[in-house]
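Please study the protein below:
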Amino acid sequence: MNTEITVHPKLQHYGLTTANLDAMIDWYRKVLGMTVNHRSEVPPQARGRAPFSAAAFVGNDEVNHRVVFFEVPRVGADPDRSRHARVQHVAFEYQRLDDLLGTYVRLKGLDILPVYAFDEGFQAAFYYQDPDQNLVELNVNYYGDDWTATEHLQASAPLAQRPEIAPVDPEKMIAARKAGVSAWDVHKRSVAGEFAPPKPYELRTAF
């Protein structure tokens, strides 16, 4: 038994409270391919004592669940969330740029659009809001290698001074890929500002 050295556990899942259990399950199914692996309803006679009325455990890979939703009737979005400490976003990673862009097209067909999208130097990241206004990031590592991306991040300038962080229009990135531009050149042209959105993104809603 190791009692001296820090063991590095992997992030397995996170939990969310919601008053919109069915809507949340449906959104995470559509966006992330989540499947309900277990769902339980608290019996009516126990609901006055239990802190939630139902729970759903969902996952999209071999792990038994990646997200657990606890249904708490009458909870709602916090209108003062920008003044409160909270989880700002969670992220899910794709292996290829085309998977991220293809997901954008698929979700657009379901009227689900990102609130903003960026080339962040080491990755492309599209940010979506779920029905409860939680921010979910979908990203792809341009290097295809976690160690190289980590080295990039460690060598980067302070966040506010990083010129390689560029807002992007996914439609322009898709058009470039369809025209035969490589994923790496899409990245370089994004950073150069060639794929800027028609109008600036409003970031204050995320913070």
